[in-house]
Amino acid sequence: MILLQSQSRFLLQTLLNRVQNLEKAVELDYHWVEFNDVRYHILVSTKNPNVLLLSVSLPTPPPEAVFMGGLPGGAIEAIKAAYGVVVHILDPPRDGFNLTLKLNLAKLPPDEEHRYALLVKIASVREVVLGAPLRVVLKHLASRTVVPDVDRVLALVHRPKESFFLVSQPDKVTVVFPMRFKDSIDTAFATSFLQEFVEARRAAGLNNAPPCLWSPTPPLELNEAPAEALSANAGFVSFVIFPRHVEGKKLDRAVWNLSTFHAYVSYHVKCSEGFMHTRMRRRVESLIQAVQCQHSRMLSLGLSKPWEREGGLGFRDRAG
User: Fold this and answer.
1) What is the pLDDT averaged over residues 162-172?
2) What's the rounded Cα separation, in Å, for the pair 8 and 13?
3) How much is the pTM?
4) What is the SS3 assignment for 259?
5) Residue 133, Ramachandran bin (φ over 0: left; ψ between -120 and 50: alpha; else beta)
6) What pLDDT score does 140 carry?
7) What pLDDT band is residue 315 in, cutting at 50, 70 and 90?
8) Helix, strand, coil percent values for the chain (each to nearest 5)
9) Is residue 188 part of a domain?
C-alpha cells in the first residue's frame, strides 16, 4: 500500500524553482487543487521577486466542526512555530481563501539542507493548518493529559462538510472516521478494502500499530455526536492511539496519516477500480483476438458463414 506524502509536490517544485532563480524577475500566478478539497494560489510579481504570496482555501467545515477566524483551532500558532520569520500571515487573507502567507525568500536559511527542509515544511502547509487541532490533542496524549476546555468528542474537518471525531482520554485517543462515498461502486470497493485493512492489522508484524476496528454502525464513543454527522455508507473506522504512537518524531507521521486517511482510502479504491478495468480490457482484447484468429482461419478454409464447419455441412445445411 502506498502512503501519501505530506508535501504538495507541485508547491515544493515551484518553491525550489523560485529559490534557484531569485535573480530573475518573473511573474507567477498559479492555481491548483489537491485532494479534491484544498485549493492553492501562488502569486509573484516582478516588482518584488523575493516575495511570494501563498493562499490556501480549506474544505468548508460542517456545523459540528467549528473554525475560528476561518481556520482550525491552533492553526495560527502552528504556522508561526513551523515557519518562523520566513512567513508572515496576512490579515485579512486574499478574497476566496482562508489563509494567505507572505513568504520572504530572502530570509531562507543559507545552509542548503536547512533551506530545503523548510521549503518541504512550507509545501506541507495543508498538514500544518488542517492538522493543527489534531496535533494539539496528540501532544497532550504524549504527556498523558487531555486538552483543557475541549469537548470530550471533538469534531475535526477533513473533507468539505465532513468531519472525523476524536474521543480523548489521558491514556488514549480514539479516532473515528465515518466513511462516505458518492458512487455506489466506490462504496462497495471501500467497504471491502476497509474490512481487509482491519484484518491486515492482526498480522504478527503489525503488533505495534494502533488497534483498528470497522463497523457498519457508529461506535459507542460517538453517542454524544450529532446524528446528522453520523451518516456513512461505507461504515466507520476507529483507531485507538496510545502515547507510544506519538512519541518524538512519530507525532508528525501520526498527524498526517490520520488527517488524510479518507484520501488514502480513496486513492486505493481508485487504484483497485483502475486495476479491474485494465484486467477487463485485456480480457476483452484477448477474446477479440481469438475471434479474429478464428475468422481468419475460416476464411482461409473458404468458409464464409459462421455455421459452416471444416469437414462437413453445418446445421443449416443439414436442416435444408
Assistant:
1) 94
2) 9
3) 0.80
4) helix
5) alpha
6) 94
7) very low
8) 45, 20, 35
9) yes
